[in-house]
Amino acid sequence: MRKIILSIIGLLLIVASFFYAKKLIADKNRPKPVQAKVVKTVFTDTIQNSVIPIVIAANGSLEAKRRLEIYAEVQGIFKQGSKLFKPGQEYRAGQTLIKVDAAEYYASVQSAKSNLYNSIAAIMPDLRLDFPDIFNKWQNYLSGFDLNKTTPKLPEMTSDKENYFITGRSIVSNYYNVKNLEQRLAKYSITAPFSGILTEALVTEGTLIRSGQKLGEFIDPSVYEMEVAVSKIYANLLKVGEDVVLNNLDKTENYKGKVSRVNGSIDPTTQTITAYIEVKNTNLKEGMYLEANLNAKEESDAIEIDRNLLLETQQIYVVKDTLLDVIDVKPIYFSDTKVVLKNVPNGTVILKKPVPGAYAGMLVKSFEEQPEAKDQQ
Fold first, then answer.
1. pTM for the full model?
2. What confidence score (pLDDT) does residue 343 get?
3. Taking CA atoms, which of 124, 222, 270, 337 is between 20 and 30 Å from 325?
4. Same domain, 209 and 307
5. Strand segments (E) across 267-371
6. Burial of residue 204, with CB atoms counted within 10 A of its CB: 0-12 exposed, 13-18 middle, 19 or more buried
7. Are residues 225 and 292 in the same domain?
8. Whether residue 231 sits in one domain with residue 282
9. In what residue span(s) does the CusB-like beta-barrel domain sit (predicted)?
């Protein structure tokens, strides 16, 4: 019985092997399906060379063109003025910024002026007797001498005898000593040289001020300058007075400026040249960060495309008879997002946007943008 079962199983295996071999032979002779060619749709642009302006992008922070760092040249107590000495306080030209208590020093100045007056008055009898021709001149000087006003200039001496006589009485030396004291007395009061605003205050009323101490900073907020560093390649292209467009980092505001100065030397470390851009606008503040676009020069017979369309081999993709190809180009200038190229013939069809996995010989077709529907009448 066992032998019969094994014989049946063997026979079934032989029959199954026959049909499986027949199926394999049929599958081998069946023709393989032909895969359809994939045609990729791309955005293209037809080249027309033109004059491309080379715009140099630079950035920097604003600084007031007129700035005053306030330092003390005398010592004393800071007296309270008509306005608080605080950041943000505005002053007009000629208004007092800081006034230091000068009562003690003022008394010494008045004493020196009084001594000068007395020394001149002491020689008047001698002038009446020995120099009657110049007596009236010195008498008028004494009459106009006011201890509460600035000491007037001494009368001009017209002869050597007069000069020797006046100098011998130490009047000239006393006069210049008084003028020196008056000059120092003027330093006890610091006035605004121009209309502006206080941006830094390091002292307050009642503070003891010492000679050489920094007191604050004062600026004119109407005119600002921005310092930018430009590559030495464009050193000969920057011109004073050239208009410049500036914008903030958010690209929401534009300002008009001009190149006010260009440094005459190149930084040996960075190989850049410094240019200064002057800008006026009521919305600007010192320290604001801006971007500037400097018009360096114009390049003829050139095109401008996105930087990501330029290959590392200094080539770009072009479309020729529905196939991608590459051509050699000559880059002239690189910006953050654009590149200016030459040696691209007019009428050349190039890619307008990058194509992932692109290669020379890829089958493509140009995307035709549908014209906008006309407004219905």
1. 0.65
2. 87
3. 337
4. no
5. 272-279, 289-306, 315-320, 323-328, 330-334, 338-342, 349-351, 364-366
6. exposed
7. yes
8. yes
9. 227-297
331 and 310 Cβ atoms separated by less than 8 Å: yes
Residue 334 gets the label, from left (phi > 0), alpha (psi -120 to 50) or beta, of: beta
The CATH number assigned to the domain holding 213 equals 2.40.50.100
User: What is the three-class DSSP state of 117?
Assistant: helix
Q: How confident is the model at residue 29 (pLDDT cuts 50, 70, 90)?
A: low
Average pLDDT, the chain: 85
Counting the structural domains of the chain, the total is 5
Rg of the chain on CA atoms, in Å: 45
At 336 the pLDDT is 75
Check whether residue 84 and residue 117 sit in a common domain.
no
Domain that holds residue 78: 67-101+188-219
pLDDT confidence of residue 377: 38
Q: Are 124 and 135 in contact (CB under 8 A)?
A: yes
Query: What is the rounded CA–CA span in Å between residue 304 and residue 318?
Result: 15
Q: Which of 32-36, 67-71, 134-138 has the lowest mean pLDDT?
A: 32-36
Spatial separation of the C-alpha atoms in residues 375 and 363, rounded to whole Å: 37
Say whether both 142 and 169 belong to one domain.
yes
Q: Specify if 372 maps to a domain.
A: no
**35 is a domain residue:** no
For residues 350 and 253, membership in a common domain is answered with: no
How far the first Cα of the chain sits from its last, in Å, is: 98
Q: Which pLDDT value is given to residue 238? A: 75
pLDDT at residue 55 is higher than 60: yes
pLDDT digits (tens, 9 = 90+) for 304-355: 999 888 888 889 989 888 888 889 998 888 877 888 898 888 988 888 888 8
- At 60, which CATH number? 2.40.30.170
| Other CB atoms within 10 Å distance of the CB of residue 46 | 12
360 lies in a domain? Answer: yes
Does the structure show a pLDDT above 50 at 373?
A: no
Pairing of strands 208-209, 196-201: unpaired
The pLDDT of residue 12: 73
- What is the model's pLDDT at position 14? 78
